[in-house]
Amino acid sequence: MKQINIFDEDNRLKRLSEMGDPLEKAASAIDWEIFRPTLKEAFSHQTYGEGHGGRKPWDTVLMFKILMLQKWNNIADDKTEYLINDRLSYQRFLGLALGDKVPDAKTIWLYRETLRKSGRIKELFELFGKTMEQQGIVTRKGSIADATFAEAPRQRNKRDENEGIRNGKIPEEWTKPENKAKLSQKDTDAMWTSKSGNRHYGYKNHVKCDSESKIILGYAVTGASVHDSQAASELIDDKDRYVCMDSAYSGKAIAEEIKRKTKKPRLIVQEKAYRNRPLAQRQEANNRRRSKKRCRIEHIFCHIKTSMGGLFIRSIGIDRAAASIGLTNLAYNMKRYEFLTREAKPIPT
Question: For the residues of 270-311, what is the DSSP string, one character each?
Answer without folding.
Answer: ----BTTBPPPHHHHHHHHHHHHHHTHHHHHHHHHHHTS---
